[in-house]
Amino acid sequence: MKDNGKISKAVIKRLPRYRRYLEELMKKDIDRISSNDLSKLIGYTASQIRQDLNNFGGFGQQGYGYNIKGLYTQIGNILGLDQEYKMIIVGCGNLGQALANYTHYYKAGFIVCGMFDINPRLIGLRINDIEVMDSNTLEAYLEENQIDIGIICTNKDSAQEIANKLVLGRVKGIWNFAPMDLDVGDNIALENVHLSDSLHSLAYHINHME
Hints:
Layout: H1 9-27, E1 32-33, H2 35-42, H3 46-54, E2 60-61, E3 65-67, H4 68-79, E4 85-90, H5 94-101, H6 104-107, E5 110-117, E6 126-127, E7 130-134, H7 138-144, E8 149-152, H8 156-168, E9 173-176, E10 189-192, H9 195-207
Parallel strand pairs: 4-5, 4-8, 5-7, 8-9, 9-10
Antiparallel strand pairs: 1-3, 2-3, 6-7
Helix pairs in contact: 1-4, 2-3
């Protein structure tokens, strides 16, 4: 297996898509699939699929294809989905609450164990049985609890300040939904999710369909 640090981000971003399609095949009791058939389902070329998976070792056999359950498990292990992650949400407006209520995360091992906000009307509320705490207690909470992932759902003005607190609190990764790119240094995994970028891309495709 190659050093994961040398594998391109584009390959890593395709892995969850492979895993999602494999999960659907498992639900249909399909045991194995060729790269050509997987290509027809997922939309990548068979060559691309083979190249991506070869980054992590040989999963398929010539003339046999891929064992679906085995490949699903291996991709999950590569992505680190064979362990649990403790998460907190900072910013408990509509988006923060929706993320807290999305039970698929819990089934996949991503556990929301704390929520924080500055709005007095939200502090003390229980969302999916998680009490919203005052953001002023965030630093103390991080000192007392080892958190893997911090989820930022605040506005643009406070996002970087929250990110700085999460970094000092030794979180391992930040999932950022605030409408800005954060600066967290090289030792923190960062995923910026710009919902507006995705929507604007959709608008482009709508207006340029043949």
